[in-house]
Every structure is written in C-alpha cells, then in structure tokens.
Amino acid sequence: xxDIFTYDWSPENYSASEEDWKDFPILKxxxxxxxxxxxxPKKYFYSYPLRxxxxxxxxxTKGIVIHNAYEDFYKAFDVEKAMDLSKAELxxxxxxxxxxxxxxxxxxWTSANFEAKRFDEMRESGTIDNFxxxxxxxxxxxLYMIARNQNPKFPLTRDYYVHLQGIIDxxxxxxxxxxxxxxxxxxxxxxxxxxxxxxxxxxKLLIEHADDEQLxxxxxxxxxxxxxxxxxxxxxxxxxxxxxxQTSTTSLLKLMAKVLWSYEQANFPAKYYYKTCSHCSYFxxxxxxxxxxxx
Length: 295
Known about the structure:
2 domains, seven-stranded mixed β-sheet, 11 helices, 41% helix, globular, Lambda Exonuclease, Chain A, 7 strands
C-alpha cells in the first residue's frame, strides 16, 4: 500500500495501470476535511490542498482544552475507588478529575454530574464493566476504495483508493457492539443531526477498515462491529445515541465521491450563504463571497 497520502493530490497519478496504483500518492480524507467540503468546497480547497492559514479562534482553543481534559478524565478515573462512593461523593470525585481553567467552566460541572449519574446507574444495573471506554482518543488509519459510480450525480472516471485517518474521541461497548461517541464543545442545535450522522458514519468506516493490528494494539476487539453511534454536547447538556443508519453511510460515501469529483474537474465551487460566509476565515480572499450583492 502506498505510504504517501496527501491533500495536494492530482488524479493524474492514477494514469498508471490498476496494478501500479500503490506506487503513487493517494488522497487523504479525514472527518474534518470531508465535512469541511460539505460545508463549502471552496473553503476546503483553501484549507486543505492550498493549506492557507486560518486564524486560531477562542472556540478552537476551548475545544482543544476541553477535549484534552475529557481524555485525561477517563485515564484518571478509578472504578474500584468509585464503587464505594455515595451519589454525592461520586459527583465530587468526578469534578475533581477535571482541571480548573478558564475554558471548561460549566461544561466540566455538567460533565462531572453526567458521568457520576451514569456511573451510579451502571453500578446499579451491573454493567459497570462498560463504564470506561475501550478506546480513548483512538487514532486509526485505513484504506478504502470509492467506486466510480458511488455518486451518480458526480460520476468519476475510475475507482479510487483513498486514505482514511481520524481520531475517535471515545469508543464504548454497548449491547455487545461498539459505540463511537463524539464530544462537541459548542451548543446543540437540531439541524446538526445530519452532519453528526455523517461524522459518525466516517468513524464507522474507519473502524471497520482499519487493520486488526491497529485495533488490537489499542485494546479494541476487531471482531466487534459498530452497532450504534452518538454525540455529547455538555454545553447544552445534550447526549444522544442511536442505532447506525445505513442511509447516513450512503450519504457519506456520496460526499466522499464528490470530493474526488472536484479533484478530477479541478473545480471547488463556493457554497455561498450569508450567515456562515461572514464568519469564514477566507471571506476576504473569496471572490464568490465578495461579489454577492448582500455585502
């Protein structure tokens, strides 16, 4: 398999024969890059193939800090110690595992209460063995083939192998299957459901096509399948899990095929919407945004 994967990719690399494709660079795809393309193909082009810098915002810093804090929470949580704590003591214990900083604030308190309640319920139901995740910030790589007819509206000239890469916030065992759980540090809105399902479908694809050695090295049973997925928004105290939806995986694969189509066509069109474009890091250099009569 090619060990060269990049966003600065050209389909001309595939002018070689089917047997020789492994010797050429392949396109890298992450959850963030694919969802960035879904948001706006032109923003994707600026951010990934061109690698133009973006300003680091407070929201980005907040997200990094809280993600790190939650990762450390699960590393430090002592199940044996917690088994003897009362409900009130559990909350105090959980809160003590989160840091004191300017970023987490109320989210740490909400998370501590949630985790204490979850622990107490699992202790009562006898399912405490599944309290800790089997995967905590799991980084995986996988090879996946996108068929030329994956998206009939944007047909490709050939099949393409792509390199999938991602870090899964948490991976739990639930009802005998795997449940990837995504942590989000912004506020929840119902319109985000479709996007969250596509993100979760990406993780499912990544887990199912990672090699067994990767999974075993991180304590994950390669025989287990992703049967559910979910997301946690502590700012809104909103958590949701559901059985996997094949329609979401199909939508994701069509989107991934469309990314490849843009590379083939050398066309990354702007998806203009005044409410979001005004907050884009590339607004000042995007002709499509600048030429809108709204501005």
